[in-house]
Amino acid sequence: MKTKELIENEKEYLMQTYNRPAMVLNKGEGMKVWDLEGKQYYDFIGGIAVNALGYSHPKLVQAIKDQAEKLIHCSNLYYSEPQIILAQMLVELSCGDKVFFGNSGAEVNEGAIKIAVKYFKDQGKDKHKIIYMKNSFHGRTIATLAATGKYKYQKDYLPLLPKFKETIFNDLESVKAAVDDQVAAIIVEPIQGEGGINIASKEFIEGLRELCNKKDMLLIFDEIQCGLGRTGKVFAYQYYNVEPDILTLAKSLGGGLPIGAFIAKEKVASSFKPGDHGTTFGGNPVACAAANAYLKVLQEENLIAKCQEKGEYFKKKLKELKEKYPKFIKEARIIGLMVGLEIEKDGPEIVKKCLEKGVLINCTAGNVLRFLPPLIVKEEEIDYLIEVLDKIFKKL
Ligand SMILES: *Cc1c(COP(=O)(O)O)cnc(C)c1O
């Protein structure tokens, strides 16, 4: 089947929840991906921060093949080796003590919320409310949608669960004002992704930690987008010297296979007992083998240090671009390879033009061009992107 026929069938057979450009991706290698017609693209959105090793990394592919030949699935009725190895690696890397595996970001955020409430229930306390931030994104399930501070996503599903309270990102006073005895936890992305690459201030994150300690609440960091190397550190919380009680991960964890995890401190983790939570697919052997390969490659190829270097280079290039178009570019926000370029207008139009010129990017929060390239991106590939943007901006 060729492009046109496939797209017609997509319109016929899939629920129309996505606005996609008229090309069908077929094959990728490193930073490059080709559509069915053979057109080549540099991928600067990386499967939305998922393809951190780029496409078809040989070690990732090999790990998936090897595990698929041995054992694809066995359910959580039984132990399997890749799951246990991965849990140990994540605990050793992070500030957490115990892991639960799910299949997606939303699902592990749900789990994080559940365990926070259970933790207090075990102590006989009626704490069940969750504080979240405006412009946050925590997922599309009913509970995580209620914690997602974007009215556009919420409006058609009202009333949402009543236990969620919205506050303002980077405004500690607004959070303080929302706290009462029934609040179990605060959930926050240290770097908001979908919200437009908004970086939390040190005072804010430190203030949240202090507030949680003082008011007997748990602090949940959603590092689904910003975690696992993307910011130039393994976890974004390491920029703040603040540890969460619960940490959620997904996106890049499986190098492209669907897997999520929430990791909690022992005192919290121990409130889950056999039967308290579960999933059929979570911690699937192949997904875990892929995640193990991802974490190994991160270390072997020194990708986190490289991410910091490439981020600095990207920053320099964006600064030059901003100097060239001071009115059109409002702000460049960048940490590691998590990059947002806030522009005056025409975000979606620019995404379209980039695609025509063979570069995949995306636009979020209205007018923020977002770049989440694989951590293997090279300087000359960043140069190419900047050239393309320059050409597009010049004509506007
Ligand atoms: C993508 C994302 C989610 C949701 O993940 P899904 O796998 O799409 O459910 C949650 N939180 C953050 C910060 C994300 O970027």
Structural notes for this entry:
This protein has 396 residues and is α/β, with parallel strands linked by helices. It has helices at residues 3-13, 46-49, 58-70, 81-93, 105-121, 142-146, 151-154, 172-178, 202-215, 266-269, 285-300, 303-324, 347-356, 379-395; strands at 25-29, 32-35, 40-43, 98-102, 129-133, 164-167, 183-188, 191-192, 198-199, 218-222, 246-249, 260-264, 329-335, 338-343, 359-360, 362-364, 368-371. The strands form four sheets. A seven-stranded mixed beta sheet has the order 4-12-11-10-7-5-6, sandwiched between helices. The protein has a four-stranded mixed beta sheet with strand order 1-2-3-15. Strand 1 and strand 2 (32-35) form a beta hairpin. Helix 4 (81-93) crosses helix 11 and helix 12 packs parallel to helix 14 (379-395). It is globular. Bound molecules: pyridoxal-5'-phosphate. The site of pyridoxal-5'-phosphate (PLP) has 15 residues, from helix 5.
Number of strands: 17
How far is the first residue's CA from the last residue's CA?
A: 37 Å
The helix-and-strand class reads: alpha/beta
Strand order of the largest sheet: 4-12-11-10-7-5-6
Q: Tell me, rounded to a whole number, the average pLDDT.
A: 98
- Tally of individual helices: 14
- Rounded to an integer, what's the Rg over CA atoms? 21 Å
Strand content: 15-25%
Which regions contain 5 or more consecutive residues with pLDDT less than 50? none
